[in-house]
Give the backbone structure.
Amino acid sequence: HKVELKENIALVDGITYRFELVGEAAKPKEAPPPEKAPEGEGVIKAIMPGKIIAVKVKEGDRVNKGDVVCILEAMKMENEIQAPKPGVIKEVRISPGDDVEMNQVLVVIE
């Protein structure tokens, strides 16, 4: 189905629906504070939004540049996310089945 949303209008497969949010749904939600992420060459971030279908490393593992650290499924394609440099896995912030956003930190290498 093709869905487009604008304010209180939803366009679903070419049919326009107007709606009004009531109760808890009508209250604006406060955004969570931005995740404080380390920056640099050893931080592996999601290249696009998607779902993690496999994690190939764990904390303490030694990796070489180009080793696959996880597999991200997006737009019906599997994307192998590779280590940008050799090092030791310091943090793994994802698990199989996790939905991730673009630029979300997945793995940290030191």
The radius of gyration is 19 Å. The longest strand covers residues 68-74. The chain has a mean pLDDT of 84. The chain is about 0% helix and 45% strand.
